[in-house]
Amino acid sequence: MPRIVVDVMPKPEILDPQGKAIVGALPRLGFTAFSSVRQGKRFELTVDGEVTEEILEQARNAASTMLSNPVIEDVVNVEVLAEDAEAE
Amino acid sequence: MPRIVVDVMPKPEILDPQGKAIVGALPRLGFTAFSSVRQGKRFELTVDGEVTEEILEQARNAASTMLSNPVIEDVVNVEVLAEDAEAE
Amino acid sequence: MSETPLIADLGAPENAPLSDAKIGVVTFPGTLDDRDAARAVRLAGATPVPLWHADTDPAALRGVDAVVIPGGFSYGDYLRAGAIARFAPLMAKIVDAANSIDKLPVLGICNGFQILTEAHLLPGSMVKNDHLKFICRDQTLRVENNHTAWTNEYREGQEITIVLKNQDGQYVADEKTLDALEAEGRVAFRYVGWNPNGSRRGIAGITNTAGNVVGLMPHPEHAVEPGFGPLDANGTYSTDGLGFFASVLSTLVGESK
Amino acid sequence: MTTAQKFNIDTVEHAAGTPDVELPWAELGLKQNEFEEILKLLNRRPTAAELAMYSVMWSEHCSYKSSKVHLRQFGEKLTDEMKKDMMVGIGENAGVTDLGDGWAVTFKVESHNHPSFVEPYQGAATGIGGIVRDIISMGARPVAVMDPLRFGAIDHPDTARLVHGIVSGIGGYGNSLGLPNIGGEVVFDPIYQANPLVNALAVGVLRHEDLRLANASGVGNRVVLFGARTGGDGIGGASVLASESFDDTKPSKRPAVQVGDPFAEKVLIECCLELFKHSLVEGIQDLGAAGISCATSELASNGEGGMRVELTNVLLRDPTLTPGEILMSESQERMMAVVTPEHVAEFEKVMEKWNVEFSWLGEVTDSGRLVITWDGETIVDVDPRTVAHEGPVYNRPFKRPEWLDGVQADTFRTSAAGKALPESGDELKAAVLELMASPNMCDKSWVTKQYDHYVGGNTALASPDDAGVIRVDEETGLGVAISTDANGRYAYLDPYTGAQLALAESYRNVATSGAVPMAVTDCLNFGSPEDPEVMWQFAEAVRGLADACQTLGIPVTGGNVSLYNQTGTTAIHPTPVVGVLGKFDDVARRTPSGWQQNADGQAIYLLGTTRDELDGSEFANLRGHLGGLPPKLDLEAEKTLGAILINASRDGMIDSAHDLSEGGLAAALSEMVLRFGVGARVALDDLCARDGVDAFTALFSESQARAVVAVPRSEEVRFNDMAAARQFPVVRLGVVDVLATSLEVQGLFDLPIAELREAHEGTLPKYFG
Ligand SMILES: Nc1ncnc2c1ncn2[C@@H]1O[C@H](COP(=O)(O)OP(=O)(O)O)[C@@H](O)[C@H]1O
Ligand SMILES: [Mg+2]
């Protein structure tokens, strides 16, 4: 069944304690290539049937009203998941 | 500066309490198009300089050893964020 | 030396028979219940020894006879509970010692349990409570396996009341793992009455095959002193948690005999 | 090009040469007269950085400019008796009280109301974070928190958002710090609709020698900033400073809300405690409102009088911040300390051990000036006292509201709501059930079970008991009890008495637990001080509280004022939240608030006198009525009652005790039954006959200075003798009955515990899931 992906990230100017803790831990495991890390959320919404423009619009609305907190987060992406991605 | 995105989702067979709560709440706000929701994580790793294959490999390793727990999660995606996405 | 600050008085009561038994209590950044665990060790008659997560000294385990990984929010529980702590230098030593022929007894409580699963000393993992909220309550458990290093002073089937408090306490594993745990008697504790977080098969705690490594979500170290812990079903203060520490002392005595 | 030039920085030199530059003082919240005062103080125009500092430090929040003239009474009305155990009083980050044996305790309550309305989770979380840093900065280990909360109507569409966010924010932050939450309040009233009150209290303990104050003494000592990096938090409204030259048009992005990092704060606590243990800091100050502006100016003016700081040394989360913004930033989880040169290396070792970032900013001087440079160029050169302590003080006009006479004349008994009151047994039973299920009287465990109340292993009592009790010394059992209380309806009807009643209730709660009351903290939540009627409420409340403290002999050691809690012209009820702290020599002597399983046959007594006092009561509230006068205050009776409760508990004469407050006797008896699920049989006849009241009044009146106790049979004579010796009224109501499964009020009704529990516990889950 088709899925819509919604990606939500903390606003760039907002402190992201989780990202901060991760970027502090990575070098201890030898991962030294990354200067900063931010942790956000990825939602996969499953649609029964075809993804119409109206349904995509619902997803966009849900993303901005419920799946994200606009005070501290940005919705960075709402898109239909490519079919092949479903396989895995 | 370039960023690498790592997407991690709960394994399909693991119950996702947050996704379940969301799918229960969506219809109350009039979002009726979605039959299931799963909530995962999106990490954005910033690289100072160019993203070499070696750095991408570091990101893949970090994704599977630390950013996800293979008992409950799958890494569904590791990729360089398109340049234009950085603008926003 | 890396001393854990302000773990209160670390000495065992004088003349306690096992006061020379040394039980390590690990502190990570964000650990909360280290002082409580040290108190429980002391009340059980042994000597708590503070251990520091970042200690890279070859003798970082400081010659302890057993280790408690206490509860809390190591690294804020950021990323996943226990995910970052698991990579601490001290953890590598603990994993080695637990898997060695000496089978160092290791108890992981709450965040400690989460760390043990992240470190693959115990199978499965914890996800958010099914109701998605932090929950703190007096919780009854049934002791399902009284043959581990940390449960041998309980009766099999004994119901004990200790404290439950967590946000990510829902124990999950795939069916095959769960079946194997059941078949091998490695479910050490099960919730009684009500499953407070949606854990698979009501599992509150498990053990490794050898029985020296035990992890559980509820907190025995908060049920060791009358007046300062949970109430049992009769409304009286429970000290049921002391059994964990008494058990490991029996284990140590048994070994030294 | 110097950095100053690159940023187009407004230096002191530049300011002196450009007297006519237009400054955005009004946008920064300064009044014309205040700006003129700054010009006078400096004898030139302020630089942008100086303007930033004065504007935040002279804000209502930081300078107490409207409240100061009234708050002085807390100091002026101190008697020698009140000063006896007070080690640190008002003026420092938190007050400190001597507990004996070399132990001391510090506690304080603060508000985070507005941020919690905007972003409930983070607002409440950072409220806990802020008050805990105040406690650390005294040299203490924080040991517990409490959270007095007020929300709008329980069924208002916005209330669930606030309740969920605020409760999980308090829990999320406090639980992660390892601080047991031992009490608080949850009140619903439409008056708090868009103005929820989120007050947070923290308590800490210390050895006398660890006491630290916020002062920068010792010329040549180094000044260090440590903890989280500085970001653009809390300066959103001041984005006019985004360009220091005031001509840039592009506003930079600044966070609208602050996000807390409880992990960073937990590490900060441990790190500070290690600094104290090895005596590595001379003075220390937390960074809260007004950030570095506040910390530098307070430390400097409380110490040798001078300090020099190089601002480019501040570690930044956002490199685009300008000097003025850095000075104003309210980023969380930061501390500033003063360290002697010989301790620098050891200090750095502690930081490295805990992986805490730090930067050396400058040093203490005796110049009497706070000099801040940016890459060597002076951008601030002020007398720090003028920033920190000598801000504007307003004697705002106040006036008793004209509507108050009408409200006070509208008593419950004469109102329509006071007609057709419950009378028969069945009616009274239904009323008790309705009361106990009502939003304000219902079980609050939906909230409190989201809080860890066990961590630390020293919690001897927590909600729902009358006071939270924490053991301080494991050897001796020395400990403290704390309760917080306020009744906005009482204070609305009469702010002077209402504030005193809040203190009386808090005092009574502490005494009921068995502790000796010692100190007071308060958070004064009011509407706009620019409204003379609100200002009158405020003045009356402070006067009342200060007078009552004097009578009870316990000092206010610290607190906080939150003004402008209003929507349009409608202010919240005046809500003076009062916290009282008491001491136990041994917490093993504490008294729980319900009948215990082993208490079968114990005698139930009511202490105190019951009058016809329903105005402002919970019962009147259930009937939608608010008018008349609050219950009569009798502080001498409170003192006597307190003494009886404390002595009786110390001498083993009572096994449980519960004070009477909102909901009166009906609530007290219900709660005592529900506490451990143990039934009781009581009769009201003697009480009604003695006090001349009917059963309804006996059950629902909110007369003060009352408590219900359970006395073991063997102690009854002694107990009665003690009350008689103090000429305090007691009446025997009945007995505890362990086998009974109900609360039986003889001749009226028999209320099954299960039914009562269902009503009591069902309400919050029904609204909040
Ligand atoms: N309502 C009040 N009652 C007593 N003291 C108060 C009150 N409000 C503020 N104070 C005291 O005034 C001083 C400054 O308060 P505040 O600015 O809140 O401190 P901080 O800067 O530590 O947050 C503190 O000592 C505080 O205890
Ligand atoms: Mg302060």
**CATH fold-level assignment of chain C:** Rossmann fold
Task: Please write the CATH class name of chain C.
Answer: Alpha Beta
Give the percentage of residues in beta strands of chain C.
15-25%
Overall strand count of chain C? 11
- How many structural domains in the coordinates of chain A? 1
How would you classify the quaternary structure?
A: heterotetramer
Give the strand tally of chain A.
3
What would the principal axes of the Cα set say about the shape of chain A?
elongated
Identify the CATH homologous superfamily of chain C.
Class I glutamine amidotransferase (GATase) domain
Query: Into which percent range does the helicity of residues of chain C fall?
Result: 10-25%
Q: Into how many domains do the coordinates of chain C divide?
A: 1
Please name the two chains that share the biggest interface, counting residues whose Cβ lies under 8 Å from a Cβ on the partner chain. Answer: C-D, 40 and 44 residues
General description of the model:
The complex is a heterotetramer, with two copies of chain A (88 residues), one copy of chain C (257 residues) and one copy of chain D (769 residues). Chain A has 88 residues and is an alpha+beta fold. Chain A has a single domain (3-87), classed as 2-Layer Sandwich (Mth169, Chain: A), CATH 3.30.1280. Helix content of chain A is 33%, strand content 34%. Chain A is built from three helices and three strands. Chain A has helices spanning 17-25, 53-67, 83-87, and strands at residues 3-10, 34-47, 73-80. Chain A is elongated. The two termini of chain A are 13 Å apart. The mean pLDDT of chain A is 91. Chain C is an alpha/beta fold. Chain C has a single domain, classed as Class I glutamine amidotransferase (GATase) domain (Rossmann fold, 3-Layer(aba) Sandwich). Chain C has helices at residues 34-43, 89-99, 111-118, 175-183, 242-256, and strands at 22-27, 47-52, 66-69, 106-109, 125-127, 135-143, 159-166, 170-172, 187-191, 203-207, 213-216. Chain C has a nine-stranded mixed β-sheet with strand order 2-1-3-4-11-10-9-6-7, sandwiched between helices. In chain C, strands 5-8 form a two-stranded antiparallel ribbon. In chain C, helix 1 links the parallel strand 1 (22-27) and strand 2. The radius of gyration of chain C is 17 Å and the shape is globular. Chain D is of the alpha+beta class and 769 residues long. Chain D has a domain at 591-769: Alpha-Beta Complex (Phosphoribosyl-aminoimidazole Synthetase, Chain A, domain 2). In chain D, a hairpin with a 2-residue loop joins strand 2 (95-100) and strand 3 (103-111). The termini of chain D are far apart. Classes of the chains: A alpha+beta (88), C alpha/beta (257), D alpha+beta (769). The C-D interface holds C 2, 5-6, 8-9, 29-30, 32-33, 35-36, 39, 54, 72-73, 75-78, 133-137, 163, 165, 167, 219, 221-222, 224-225, 227-231, 234-236 and D 141, 168, 171-172, 175-178, 261-264, 266-267, 270, 273-274, 277, 353-355, 448-460, 471, 474, 587-588, 596-598, 676-678. Strand 2 of chain A pairs antiparallel with strand 2 of chain B. The site of magnesium ion (MG) has 4 residues of chain D, from loops.
